[in-house]
Amino acid sequence: MKRLMFSLIGLFFVSTVTAAPAPTTPRVSIFSTSTDWSAVTGLTLNEYNGKFQEDKKLVGRGLVLYYLDGFPCYGLGDGVRVWIGPNGQNHEHLHIACVATPTEIKFAYRNATRDADEATTTGILTCPVDADGRELTIDLADCTVGPNWDEYK
Predict the structure, then answer these.
(1) What are the tens digits of pLDDT across the range 101-150?
(2) Cis link prior to 72 (omega < 30° from 0)?
């Protein structure tokens, strides 16, 4: 019995001494205040639809846009990804909720064909917005192409 006890104690000691601590990975928690902007601001949320005026130089063989949430708006469901193709093809639309009519919106973008879902985006695109009620028009020729992601430090 003593041998068994000493063996168990020895085994425990060896396992605690030789076991390397597990590497720790920092946890990132993202909490968006946009989900309750109506309650935070006291303003009513309204839905807006966006349409695009093409810029052939920017669109090229196709332009994939991902709406980037930013006050006073956030994206709704499938309306945050838009593909604009050559010759004015556009199979998706921008659909956002806002507490005030936006005057400028931002997109992560990349040039790609319609079904190229796996590639990462290139950088940021900042666009002025014209509003007619709840219909938004984004003229891609007026957008400013920001730095590529690898230029952010």
Answers:
(1) 999 999 999 988 777 667 788 899 999 999 999 999 999 999 999 988 98
(2) yes
Cα gap 62→151, rounded to integer Å: 23
C-alpha to C-alpha distance for 126 and 144, rounded to whole angstroms: 5
Q: Provide the token pair at 133.
A: 């009620």
Q: Which two tokens stand for residue 60?
A: 């090229």
Q: What is the DSSP letter of 60?
A: T
Both tokens of 68, joined, read: 């980037």
Per-residue burial over 74-94, b = 16 or more CB atoms within 10 Å of its CB, e = otherwise? bbbeebbbbbbbeeeeeebeb
Read off the pTM: 0.73
| 22-to-13, 25, 35, 97 alpha-carbon distances in Å | 18, 9, 36, 44
- CB–CB of 98/45 below 8 Å? yes
Spatial CA neighbour of 63 closest among 150, 23, 126, 122: 122
